Amino acid sequence: MCGIVGIFGRSPVAARLYDAMTILQHRGQDAAGMTTLDQGRMRSARGIGLVRDVFGEASMSGLTGEIGIGHVRYPTAGCDRPDEAQPMYVNSPLGISLGHNGNLTNSERLSAELFAEDHRHINTESDSEVLLNCLAHELARPLVGASGPGLARAVFDAVDGVHRRCRGGYAAVAVIAGVGLLAFRDPHGIRPAVLGRRETEEGEEYIVASESVVLDILGFELVSDLAAGESILVTMDGQLHRRVSTLAMPHTPCLFEYVYFARPDSMIDDLSVYKARLRMGEALAEKILRDWPDHDIDVIIPVPDTSRTACLPLSHRLGVKYREGLMKNRYIGRTFIMPGQEERARSVRRKLNTIPLEFRNKNVLLVDDSIVRGTTSKQIIQMAREAGAKKVYLVSASPPVRYPNVYGIDMPAASELIASGRSEEEVARLIGADRLIYQDLDALVDAVMGKNEKLAGFDTSCFSGEYVTELEPGYLEALEQKRSDVNRQARRQGSGNNG
Which of 41, 128, 375, 379 might form a disulfide with 100, Cβ 3.0–4.6 angstroms? Predict the structure, then answer.
């Protein structure tokens, strides 16, 4: 999962891009990058680390221009080198810089095609470079002699060419020299993107970002989400053009965005992440009252931070007191995306600490947003027992994660998902819980959907194993190998040995 932002401004945009990227830092803590366009010159800086680590006074002073894009990267399988930080750049046609959130499921085949048929060399393992070169190739012919309304039409036709060739989930922002700011979303609308606008004395400014919270904080008005298969282009003269591709499919955004990744103060596809999580808690309470009416829960404690919103209505509906019993060190990254099982296990203890008086001699219900590997859950349950809890129950706001996500969330290999091939009782024993309760998938879908009737549904693949796009033969098997902790570690050692 990554975060993207693009701004067409009437004054220098680098500082605003920096702020936007820090707002989106929860979506990627591995690398950051920014490209601006200044009088036909692309100016770029990128590197490994948090936004504050990558950009200093010197690099920011060189990022001049009133149009630009930014990216925060979350490392995906096989893509963790400094030269794979985004935005990425190609100099033909015109010069294009692109940042991408998502994953192409046919990137290996496309990479071979680009070399053999299009004579374009892919120099990294990043599917973002594949997406960029697909776009560049599709733009090469239509841009010749295009101007005025024909320019936007040519760009949108090129994006249609990308849709025909690329499979998977993707939302992208790009700067094209002499053309303007481009953003587009895959035909299923799996990965999020929102459009904002604001009036200035010099004229209208536009922004595209992964989450609406960026618009709120930077002072832009939310215009709308990009629809499934929609592209927007702001040309150099400040004109906004929009088109939904004829290749657009029924809109099915990623369900896991609402469970875990997105900030609660964001709106995604006209759905409030905060309200969705409140409804998740209500649904969990109804399940407990239905299946465990004689429960002996003394206190309900959230695993910070994502589960807090669901925890409150759960506590209220059950009539059980809510307490903050786990304190979080906010300077430790998300354990879900940390490399290596050993590192994740150590980080749980560094990241969380108990308040023993909230656990001592009590039957405690811990509430978490999801259970992926089970590493964090097992450690937290052990911490609760060490703090004096009599019994420790765990409830997950999402269903069992049994299948890999292939659209940009780098979940582990299926064999490393604790719920894969196991019953709830077996998972409970493995993590040491006295009782484990998962959200039902139908209840989660209803909680997120609310009264929104515009969406066709959601991508639920990590829960259901049903993928909304076609997968290449053998893709899941290859992904299993690539995402295993053993193979990840081997790749890191190899890249380290190569300097």
Answer: 128
| Residue 21, pLDDT above cutoff 70 | yes
In Å, how far from its chain's centre is CA 111? Answer: 24
Q: Average pLDDT of 81-107? A: 93
Same-domain pairing of 219 and 285: no
For residue 175, give the nearest of 204, 194, 150, 155 by alpha carbon: 155
Beta-strand pair 221-225/271-272: unpaired
Report angle CA 481, 482, 484 to the nearest 5 degrees: 70
Q: Is 170 helix (H, G, I), strand (E, B) or coil?
A: strand
Q: What is the pLDDT of residue 347?
A: 66
Is the model's pLDDT at 107 over the cut of 60? yes
493 occurs within a structural domain: no
Of the candidates 464, 468, 326, 333, the one whose C-alpha atom is nearest the C-alpha of residue 31 is 333
CB 437 within 8 A of CB 430: no
Q: Percent of the chain at pLDDT above 70?
A: 92
Q: Is residue 44 part of a domain?
A: yes
Q: Is the entire prediction scored with pTM above 0.90?
A: yes
- The three-point CA angle 300-289-364 to 5° equals 20
Model confidence band, residue 434 (pLDDT cutoffs 50, 70, 90): very high
CA atoms within 13 A on the CB side of 319: 5
**In CATH, what number is assigned to the domain containing residue 400?**
3.40.50.2020
Mean pLDDT of 491-498: 44
In whole angstroms, give the CA distance from residue 69 to residue 56: 17
- Alpha helices (H) along 292-388: 308-318, 341-351, 375-386
**Partners of 197 in beta bridges:** 206, 221
If you average pLDDT over every residue of the chain, what do you get? 91
Domain that holds residue 86: 3-249
| pLDDT value at residue 489 | 55
User: What single letter denotes the amino acid at residue 374?
Assistant: G
Measured in whole angstroms, how far is the alpha carbon of residue 169 from the centre of its chain? 11
88 exposure class (CB count in 10 Å sphere: 0-12, 13-18, 19+): buried
Task: Mark whether 208 and 280 lie in a shared domain.
Answer: no
In 3D, which of 254, 253, 312, 245 has the Cα closest to residue 284? 312
The residues that are catalytic are: 2
Tell me if 209 is assigned to some domain.
yes
